[in-house]
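Reviewer 2 asked us to include a model.

Predict the structure of this chain.
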Amino acid sequence: MLDCLTDAYQEQHQKGGHPRRLSMEEQLIMTLRYLRYYPTQCLLAFDFGVGVATVNMMRI
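Predicted model (C-alpha cells):
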C-alpha cells in the first residue's frame, strides 16, 4: 500500500514544490489513526509534531 501511495505522489509532483513535512509512511499512519479513533486535528498535529494546517492539507 505504501509503495502505491509513494508512486502516485511522485507522479503528481514531478515538477517539484515544497518538500513534505511528513513522510508517506507518517501520512498513512495519520490517516489510519484518524479513521480508527477520530481525534481532533489539533491532537493529530501535536502527536506528529506539525501544525494544524499541515494536518488539514492531508485532506483527511
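Residues 24-37 form the longest helix (14 residues). The chain has a mean pLDDT of 86. We have added this to the supplementary material.
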